[in-house]
Amino acid sequence: MAALGGDGLRLLSVSRPERQPESAALGGPGPGLCCWVSVFSCLSLACSYVGSLYVWKSELPRDHPAVIKRRFTSVLVVSSLSPLCVLLWRELTGIQPGTSLFTLMGFRLEGIFPAALLPLLLTMILFLGPLMQLSMDCPCDLADGLKVVLAPRSWARCLTDMRWLRNQVIAPLTEELVFRACMLPMLAPCTGLGPAVFTCPLFFGVAHFHHIIEQLRFRQSSVGSIFLSAGHLIGPVLCHSFCNYMGFPAVCAALEHPQRRPLLAGYALGVGLFLLLLQPLTDPKLYGSLPLCVLLERTGDSKAPLCS
């Protein structure tokens, strides 16, 4: 190598090709066009999901069983077809993820147990105050409450309750599939993994503003209370279902509660512990290899902070 001299070294450094992004290597569109395709694809998914709720014209409120059943059909069809949008995005951008589509969307067995338990535990810690408030206001003790929760009759009633099925099963499954599993792989090559994680909830939040129109139309809430309760935290399906069950924390009720001091302490402790445990419990090493990191490496972003 030394015998080549300075000119030889320069020749070797020039002749060595640099790693190019996947889309450029395949002759696909540039990064700017890829971003526009990604954003447009996510907007199309969000509009399709919300639009499917209004295919059925009805003067009945959204909580009516007939309306819920019709909307089940619509969102299940849209959610089932949503992976096709990711396939179309892949063809338009020329990006090859390097892994199967369903693995990229989060359908994998590796790390499934920590992925199911740790985010749910973290979310329950955040809701420590509301959980304390729920237990204080519940007329039954812990033993009786567990008996009710574990009783087969209770689950049978839940499975025949259209509102329960919507809030705890169908909505978490379909919304997480559309607004996280499908959108995150399309946004990550454009914005990076970190910004994409915070961008997906924007599409999710905007898509939920149609609830405002419905609630105002049927005069179910005031404008202020609607804006406080529209939307929940994006997370795995279990966290989504848990958040749907808990709803927005009743801070105003906690301030007027007879035991407000310990209750407010629980609120503060929950938020503090959540911030303290957020980084260790969301460490990617706990959940196995990240298919999105493979995608980012193939698009030229191999130094993503969450993938290092």
TrEMBL record:
Molecular-function annotations in GO: metalloendopeptidase activity
Annotated keywords: Endoplasmic reticulum, Hydrolase, Membrane, Protease, Transmembrane, Transmembrane helix
Catalytic activity, as annotated: Hydrolyzes the peptide bond -P2-(S-farnesyl or geranylgeranyl)C-P1'-P2'-P3'-COOH where P1' and P2' are amino acids with aliphatic sidechains and P3' is any C-terminal residue
Domain of life of the organism encoding this protein: Eukaryota
Lipid bilayer topology: Multi-pass membrane protein
Residue spans crossing the bilayer: 36-56, 68-89, 109-128, 193-213, 262-281
Domain CAAX prenyl protease 2/Lysostaphin resistance protein A-like: start-end pairs: 164-246
Chief location category: endoplasmic reticulum
A single GO BP: CAAX-box protein processing
GO cellular component: endoplasmic reticulum membrane
Subcellular localization(s) per the UniProt record: Endoplasmic reticulum membrane
Enzyme Commission designation: 3.4.26.1
Pfam families named in the record: Rce1-like (PF02517)
Annotated family: Belongs to the peptidase U48 family.
Protein name: CAAX prenyl protease 2
Organism: Propithecus coquereli (Coquerel's sifaka)
